[in-house]
Design brief:
This protein is of the alpha+beta class and 295 residues long. Helix content is 37%, strand content 14%.
């Protein structure tokens, strides 16, 4: 089953248009690891199984919404706007996922001219969409990101730095985090020391810090027995998604303390609540719920 999954995902990536980012290529994930992991988002956000037992903003409008974004193949901004004009029929809630800035930043770097041009296109697209919505009455608008982005200035091969027993055991490496699952405390200490030497500025983040400082709902399956995170601007290459010659120019996924890893939240319209300079991500839900008059 694992290998069939690898072949399917690999084939999907090979068929894709570079301008239309598709599924992750999982062919680099070792089969012994792949059987223990799963894709985080397996259903659409309005599905009852997405967050079981929790009410979402999509529930609040009783199905009267237009959702444009993943998993629909709308990777470019012009495609997204065209889909809006085709599918908007006066829905109460319009949710649009502008994903092009993300993959442009990975490809060219956060401060690149290409990204600046991309952001200008997104700005113009939002103005166009807002203008169309205003023809139907007052519009409450919330614009937010799920992360920021940093220019990459260092690549580190942390997989080569792992002690042999850790490399042979259960671990997972992505662009900015490495997780190890092991009951051997000595091996975890040895691994931490090796990683800190190989990736200067990177560090181990423990359960207490995850729960207390970053308000994560810790569990061993997700975070492992050792979680090592990259320093700002540093990426782990190769990893389970990228080969040794595919280091991105821009990356996110750093700790929330990193200013450029934070996202923006802009709200406009009648009934806007007062926002602090730095809000937790849950503020997005609070603002939307306030607009929709739901808890």
């Amino acid at each position: 089953i694992a290998w069939r999954g690898v072949k399917w995902h690999t084939a999907a990536v090979r068929r894709r248009d570079p301008e239309h980012p598709g599924p992750w290529d999982l062919s680099r994930v070792p089969p012994k690891v792949l059987k223990h992991v799963r894709v985080a988002e397996r259903t659409v956000p309005w599905s009852p199984t997405y967050l079981p037992g929790r009410r979402s903003v999509f529930d609040a409008v009783d199905g009267d919404f237009l959702y444009l974004g993943y998993p629909k193949p709308l990777g470019r901004t012009d495609e997204l706007v065209s889909a809006f004009h085709r599918e908007y029929t006066g829905q109460r809630l319009v949710w649009m996922h502008f994903s092009e800035p993300d993959w442009r930043e990975h490809e060219h770097g956060a401060s690149s001219p290409e990204v600046q041009a991309c952001l200008a296109d997104v700005d113009a697209a939002m103005k166009e969409v807002h203008g169309r919505l205003e023809r139907d009455g007052p519009v409450r608008t919330v614009i937010f990101g799920d992360h920021g982005c940093l220019d990459v200035d260092a690549s580190v091969d942390v997989m080569a730095a792992l002690p042999p027993r850790a490399a042979a055991g259960l671990h997972f490496v992505d662009s900015t985090m490495l997780r190890i699952w092991s009951d051997d405390a000595g091996l975890l200490r040895e691994s931490a020391a090796a990683l800190e030497a190989a990736a200067p500025g990177g560090r181990v983040v423990g359960r207490e810090e995850l729960e207390g400082r970053y308000r994560c709902a810790w569990n061993r399956a997700t975070f492992g027995d050792l979680l090592f995170v990259a320093a700002p601007g540093q990426v782990f290459v190769p990893n389970f998604f990228q080969g040794p010659d595919t280091a991105p120019a821009g990356m996110h996924g750093y700790l929330p303390d990193v200013p450029d890893n934070r996202a923006a939240l802009v709200a406009h319209g009648p009934g806007i609540p007062e926002l602090d300079d730095i809000e937790p991500m849950t503020a997005v839900h609070d603002v939307l719920s306030g607009f929709l008059g739901t808890p």
